[in-house]
UniProtKB/TrEMBL annotation, chain A:
It comes from the Bacteria. This is Maltose/maltodextrin transport system permease protein MalG. Part of the ABC transporter complex MalEFGK involved in maltose/maltodextrin import. Probably responsible for the translocation of the substrate across the membrane. It comes from Gemmobacter caeni. It is found in: Cell membrane. Residues 73-266 form the ABC transmembrane type-1 domain. GO terms for cellular component: plasma membrane. GO terms for biological process: transmembrane transport.
TrEMBL record, chain B:
Belongs to the ABC transporter superfamily. One of its GO terms (molecular function) is ATP binding. PROSITE patterns: ABC_TRANSPORTER_1 (PS00211), ABC_TRANSPORTER_2 (PS50893). This is Carbohydrate ABC transporter ATP-binding protein (CUT1 family). It comes from Gemmobacter caeni. Residues 2-233 form the ABC transporter domain. InterPro entries: AAA+_ATPase, ABC_transporter-like_ATP-bd, ABC_transporter-like_CS, ABC_transpr_FbpC, ABC_transpr_MalK/UgpC-like, Mo/tungstate-bd_C_term_dom, P-loop_NTPase. Keywords: ATP-binding, Cell membrane, Membrane, Nucleotide-binding, Translocase, Transport. GO terms for cellular component: ATP-binding cassette (ABC) transporter complex, substrate-binding subunit-containing.
Length: 280, 354
């Protein structure tokens, strides 16, 4: 009975692994194919079934028919990391304030303010695009990295606030008070006592910010022209009348790589029990 | 000496503290006794600076604290909840306030280890608080409060969430630990009159944010100044019997004429309320009563009865099995009753009280 259970378990895990790995495998093989290799039906084994080529990868670095994605890649890294970091810092501070203090402005209370943050993400992006465009133009930051960072902070901060408010709410206010009585002023209390106890929340919020920031195409496209390009836009620029699946697959791999690394890091953190039971 | 003078705090029209004045001496435990909502916790939080009274003054040894933020007040506090720092080990939890105070890390950890040894947690120093039982977690909180050697120690029903046996044990341990801190002012809030009697050197009775009475525990228990104070200091609840003393003798409203005894003879005719403690009612007498509820607690039995329309509570120092609805004959020891006047003030103390 136990053997059957184990066999079924391994079968389920194997099927699921295949389900997850298959798209990556498909991308990897396609990235080494040529136009002939792609159109000739499903093939898997290099040299035996198709002749591998580095053409797809070369087109990412300015090769024939391609674009150079190095600059956009670095731009994406700078914008995503800076935007996420600033959004996480501001969002965490805002969330702590919303969790610990009561705000009143007419009929508006803490819950309304939290919802206001979240509502920024509920609206369709197109609603924000024109105001963002006008604001950046007014600031002279259109088509620039600082402008994009500013917009990404505005887009990612609601995520950080939304995640962190819940985490702060799980920490009893008595912990802040105990730290005060143990000689910690509020800022020290926040940094030394509260923040270490919401590390799992910071990881989750940071992960969401990085994923949303890295994957954004819409604002990267509408708020830039030619000077500053981000990775998703440059990948689209690879497309032509004949879809270059080999180049797009190579681009997809390099584009998903940072998120895959992030997933591995966070998974290790999660498996250590970091997220569960950190706070009584 | 810690002096709290005329502390008042009203929130949303509800008075949490109403001109509360308390004086507490170092080396003595002052117990704040009152029911839930009496203002005990608010008073302790005001001393710690966690709430700001709208008026009044808090001073220690003549130094006014009233406007100091909590992190500048030399207080330590243990609360009902087992509040510890979840991200720190037991040792670092206890060393935390010393390190924050600027003591060298190693010295702080040595002092913390010594204190953990005193509270019986020497083997647990490396664990996280969440890995400990409730009693052990509270010991960590107590160790952290004591290791600071703060001039003022605030204990807010520290054992209320623990089981009976553990509570008894920790209470004794705490009293033992406090003996070594003779320069500390200790304020201990409790809802349990027996705990106040057992632990305190001075008892402050509180109700609805007011101080009802303060003094040595035996004096407060023996002669509660008012009906309200009598209700607070008695557990099981005191029996309150409306009575009239006439020329011909003592008449209880629901129980009829009684032998006047010393009580009746000492007072002029008029309306009174007699406060008769549960232990001053015994079974085996002439007054018929029906058992409404029996609670056995340890080696004691508390029986709730109805004598006609008069509810009564009887305490027996034995485990007895009075069946629900059965009839009992009661003996009221009215000679020990506290007598309160029409304004609720105590005017005559019973024979054996105080």
């Amino acid at each position: 009975m136990r053997t059957l259970y184990l066999a079924l378990k391994y079968l389920a895990v194997t099927l699921w692994s295949g389900f997850v790995i298959f798209p990556f495998l498909w991308m990897l093989t396609t990235s080494f194919k040529t136009a002939n290799g792609v159109t000739g039906g499903a093939t898997w084994l290099p040299w035996l079934q198709y002749q591998p080529s580095l053409g797809g990868w070369q087109s990412l670095f300015g090769g024939a028919g391609g674009v150079n994605i190095v600059r956009p890649y670095l731009n994406s890294l700078v914008v995503t990391l800076s935007g996420s970091a600033i959004a996480l810092i501001l969002g965490t501070l805002a969330a702590y304030g919303l969790s610990r203090f009561s705000f009143r402005a007419g009929p508006i209370r803490n819950g309304d303010i939290t919802f206001f943050f979240i509502s920024q993400r509920i609206m369709p992006p197109i609603v924000l695009a024109i105001p963002f465009f006008l604001m950046l133009r007014w600031l002279g930051l259109l088509d620039s990295l600082p402008g994009l960072i500013l917009i990404y902070v505005a887009l990612l901060m609601p995520i950080a606030v939304w995640v962190m408010v819940d985490f702060f709410n799980t920490i009893p206010r008595g912990l802040d008070e105990m730290a005060w009585m143990d000689g910690c002023p509020p800022v020290t209390t926040f940094l030394r006592v509260i923040l270490p106890n919401v590390m799992p929340g910071l990881v989750v919020a940071g992960m969401f910010c990085l994923i949303f920031g890295w994957n954004d195409f819409f604002f990267a496209f509408t708020l830039t022209f030619t000077k500053t390009q981000l990775l998703p836009v440059s990948i689209v620029a690879l497309n032509s009348s004949v879809t270059p699946w080999w180049a797009l697959s190579a681009a997809a791999i390099v584009s998903v790589a940072p998120l895959a690394v992030l997933a591995f890091v966070v998974e290790r953190f999660l498996s250590r029990g970091g997220l569960a039971g950190a706070v009584r | 000496m810690l002096v709290l003078r005329d502390l008042s705090l009203t929130e949303g029209g509800v008075p949490h503290l109403a001109a509360v004045s308390v004086e507490a001496e170092p080396g003595r435990m002052t117990t704040l006794l009152g029911r839930t909502g009496a203002g005990k916790t608010t008073l302790l939080r005001a001393v710690a600076g966690l709430v700001q009274p709208q008026s009044g003054q808090i001073s220690l040894a003549g130094n006014d604290w009233s406007r100091l933020p909590p992190w500048r007040r030399p207080v330590a506090m243990v609360t009902q909840q087992f509040i510890n720092y979840p991200h720190l080990s037991v040792l670092d939890n206890v060393a935390f306030p010393l390190i924050r105070r600027g003591e060298p890390r190693e010295a702080a950890r040595e002092a913390a280890a010594a204190m953990l040894g005193r509270v019986g947690l020497a083997q647990m120093t490396g664990r996280r608080p969440a890995a400990l039982s409730g009693g052990q977690q509270q010991r960590v909180a107590i160790a952290r409060a004591l290791v600071k050697r703060a001039p003022v120690l605030l204990l807010d029903e520290p054992f209320v969430n623990l089981d009976y046996k553990l509570r008894e044990g920790l209470r004794e341990e705490l009293a033992e630990l406090l003996r070594s801190q003779s320069d500390t002012v200790v304020l201990y809030a409790t809802t349990d009159p027996r705990e106040a009697l057992q632990m305190g050197d001075c008892t402050v009775l509180m109700a609805e944010g007011r101080v009802l009475q303060a003094g040595p525990p035996r004096a407060v228990f023996g002669a509660p100044a008012t009906l309200e104070a009598a209700r607070v200091v008695n557990d099981p609840p005191i029996n309150l019997l409306a009575a009239e003393i006439t020329q011909s003798g003592l008449v209880l409203d629901h129980l009829g004429p009684q032998s006047p005894g010393a009580t009746g003879r000492a007072l002029p005719p008029g309306r009174y309320t007699l406060g008769l403690r549960a232990e001053d009612i015994r079974s085996g007498g002439p007054l018929p009563a029906r058992v409404a509820l029996t609670e056995v607690s340890g080696s004691e039995t508390v029986t709730h009865l109805m004598a006609g329309a008069q509810p009564l509570v009887m305490l027996e120092r034995a485990v007895t099995d009075h069946r629900l609805g059965s009839e009992l004959g009661l003996m009221l020891d009215l000679g020990k009753a506290l007598v309160f006047g029409a304004d609720g003030a105590l005017i005559l103390k019973g024979a054996s009280h105080g």
